[in-house]
Structure formats: structure tokens, C-alpha cells
Amino acid sequence: MSRSELNLLVDFIKEKKDTHLISDEIYSGTVFSSPGFVSIMEILKERNDADGIWNRVHVVYSLSKDLGLPGFRVGAIYSENDTVVAAATKMSSFGLISSQTQYLLSAMLGDKKFTRNYIVENQKRLKRRQRMMVSGLQKAGISCLESNAGLFCWVDMRHLLHSNTFEAEMELWKKIVYQVGLNISPGSSCHCTEPGWFRVCFANMSEETLTLAMKRLKNFVVESSCTQRSALLNGTSKRKSLTKWVFRLSSRDHREQEER
Ligand SMILES: Cc1ncc(COP(=O)(O)O)c(C=O)c1O
Fold it and tell me: 176: closest CA among 188, 186, 167, 166?
């Protein structure tokens, strides 16, 4: 989110005195092109009217995305609100992190040289991979929304649906799973309100696998449009013979009427 969008959110909670703002910054380390990442905490620091707001703004974070460690189940809450921190501290006893995990992470994250290199290299690779996916999709006649962060593309496959429905979206998802061998998330599973959008991850496979996936997807699109075209042509020829048939019938009616 841009600085001005974040400022708008802060303005909003400034007005609404009992509203809290929770900023999920889980993808903060994946921002691979401009605009760069801005934390809500930077916005608060920049403002000189944030006095009554600090204890209503909270940041949540996890190592799942930036470090690719979802299995570790390690996350954090940053808050200036004592009640929130006390509750989170109590809740954390239900999901304690194992000593081995803590030991490994403290060694990893304590190594400043490693973390700096890791973040830079990760962003470089994500950028490259995202470009590969976008151009692969383009070659298959599929577009996606522009993005500058994260591990996913929001892909527009509306033109591949048989009808503008979520049933058709599920049908397409199944076809892509069984015929192409790719499991991409249908938009409905992310609460998208419009059928035909898919969330496609570009970060969980090798470049060779991604190239193969794009090749298979392209073939699928070509085959689908061939099938659609022949169904359409079939429909047209059926319609043509139906027209002839109706015409024959109506001209016979005409003749019969004239003979009467
Ligand atoms: C925006 C966002 N927040 C939070 C999470 C939760 O991640 P985890 O439970 O692995 O820390 C996810 C995972 O998909 C996410 O996309």
C-alpha cells in the first residue's frame, strides 16, 4: 500500500475512536519492485497527530512468506497496547515454538550478513520468476494484474469459462488440475466476487517446472479454443440446416395455402 493509502487508513481510525487497525505485513520482505514497502509504523512515526492512535495500531508478521517457512509456525505481533500484548503472551502458550526451532532461527536471524543477502537475493529471484510467469501467460493469451510483491499472480481466465458462473470456474479449475497437471487456486476460494480469476503461485517451483507449466497451459488454451470453435461451427451448421428446414416447411405451408 502507498503512503497516502496508509495515511487515509490512519485518518479513518483517528476519527473512529474505538477502531483498531491491524496491519498484516507478512509479505513485507517480498516487495521486488517499486513502490517499496512502507510499514504502518513508519506512517505513525512521520505524523505529529498520532498521540491517541499508537495503542490502536498493531502489526502482525510471520516467517511463512519472506523466509518460506510456513511449517515452522513462527509469527509475531507488534503492538504498543499493553492489553493486546498481555493477551498475545497468554495465547502464545497454546502454540509454543520448539527449542530446536528457536535455536535455529536465532542463529539464522542473528546473522545480519545472511539476512541482508537473503532478502536481496530472494527479491531478485521473485522478480525474475514473476516476469517469467507473466510473459508465459501472455504467450498463452492470458493476462494478469500488475504486482510488485508477494508470491502470486492474480490471473484473469474469464475468457476460458463456459459461462460467467462459479460453477464454470470450478469446472475450469478441475480441467486444469486433471488435464494440465497444475493446481492453481480458484478465485472463489479467496472470496473473489467475480468468476474466472485464479491465484497462481510462481515461487514454489523451479524455473524448468515453471517453463513446462506455461507450455502445458498454452497447449490447453489452444486446444480449448479449437474445441470451442468447432462447437461453434457445429452450432452454426446445425443452425443453418435448421434454418433450411424451417424455410422448407414455411415455403411448403405457403404453397399449400396458395393451392387452397
Ligand atoms: C496475507 C496473509 N496473512 C497471513 C497468512 C498466514 O500465514 P501463516 O499462518 O503461515 O503464518 C497468509 C498465508 O497465506 C497470508 O497470505
Answer: 186
pLDDT beneath 50: ranges in the chain:
242, 245-247, 249
CA distances for 129 relative to 29, 55, 153, 212, 221, angstroms: 16, 39, 11, 13, 21
Q: How confident is the model at residue 234, as a pLDDT?
A: 73
Atom of ligand 1 nearest to the CA of 62: 11
Contact by Cβ (8 Å): 77, 84: yes
Assigned superfamily of 124-229: Aspartate Aminotransferase, domain 1 (3.90.1150.10)
pTM summary value: 0.82
The model's pLDDT over 17-67, given as tens digits with 9 standing for 90+, comes to 999 999 999 999 999 999 999 999 999 999 999 888 999 999 999 999 999
pLDDT, tens only, 214-239? 999 999 999 987 777 677 677 665 55
Mutation choice for ligand 1 from 27, 65, 199, CB with most ligand atoms inside 8 A = 65
26 lines ligand 1 (CB under 6 A): yes
- Within the chain, all domains assigned CATH 3.90.1150.10 are found at 124-229
Residue whose CA lies nearest to ligand 1 atom number 16: 26
Q: Cα(173)–Cα(225) distance, rounded to whole angstroms? A: 16
